[in-house]
Amino acid sequence: MAAELIDGRAIALEVRAQVGRDVAAWVAEGHEPPGLATVLVGDDPASALYVGNKQKASAEVGIQGFDHRLPQDAAHDEVDAILQELAADPRVSGILLQLPTPPQVDGSGLAAMIPPGKDVDGLTPVSAGLLAQGRPGLRPCTPSGILELLRRHDVQLEGAEAVVVGRSDLVGRPLAALLLAANATVTVCHSRTRDLAEVCRRADVLVAAVGRPGLILGDWIKPGATVIDVGSPVGDVDFATAVERAGLITPVPGGVGPMTIAMLLRNTLRAAQAAAAQPVGAEWT
Length: 285
Ligand code: NAP
Prior knowledge:
By secondary structure, the chain is an alpha/beta fold. Helices cover 40% and strands 14% of the residues. The protein has helices spanning 8-28, 45-60, 76-88, 107-111, 125-132, 141-152, 172-181, 196-200, 239-242, 259-277, and strands at 4-5, 35-41, 64-70, 94-97, 161-165, 185-189, 205-208, 226-229, 248-249. It has a 6-stranded parallel sheet. A 3-stranded parallel sheet has the order 3-2-4, with helices on both faces. The site of NADP nicotinamide-adenine-dinucleotide phosphate has 25 residues, from loops.
């Protein structure tokens, strides 16, 4: 029997609509609307498109946009100064520095300095450390989008065997930490894993975040398992064979992809609420 599809587009729309209602309620209580600042250095068209999409999605849910664009030859110190201003600006709840930056700007170094309370990408070392220790904090958007998909489909995580293929800082590693926090028994696989197929066959929940189209084959999947394919723009799972074995599966496109911006909006609202509740600098401790 073919697996049930997880409709990430529909779930992302629901999350976005809910964030919109929550922002409206927050403002109705007398608070300033949450603010999302994006910083884009240079003229890469793909990066400009990502930033534009984030700003547009924010505006749709009532989040204020602060859209900073710097020329290709902007100096490192110029970008640093803008990030410091944004860090100090109470109207700004979340800050995103679009990576990669031109070579004269140390983009990863600057991104790492974003204060944890405004780190709506959840990717700074402090946010990663809070997640690794199971302490409250802002979580990376794609992994938390995956948890939301699982939650909305009532996928049992407690005690389940979860296998994550991929250990990037962006997806695999934080996802493994979130699954562990949800009391799954987590195995993380990577390019040196021996007999990947056999490890995957143990999984009640199998997540592929590799970037190798069609790597995961149908007969690697435990019958009835939940399969989440993060691969983009082409899936890491061989969908035609996997759909015959899985119980639940995400398509590509229309599975994990749409969740990322939805979770960014939710993070921005949560950052605003946490900042209002606690003094700056102590938001997540
Ligand atoms: P990445 O940084 O390149 O990491 C890939 C991971 O896969 C690494 O840990 C690597 O192992 C592992 N790997 C590579 N070949 C393997 C193999 N043959 N067997 C087992 N593991 C293997 O990639 P990423 O940033 O996590 O992205 C992964 C995929 O997700 C990409 O297709 C990307 O486009 C997609 N993505 C989608 C979204 C979204 O939809 N919103 C967001 C982010 C990423 P080593 O660590 O040993 O090298």
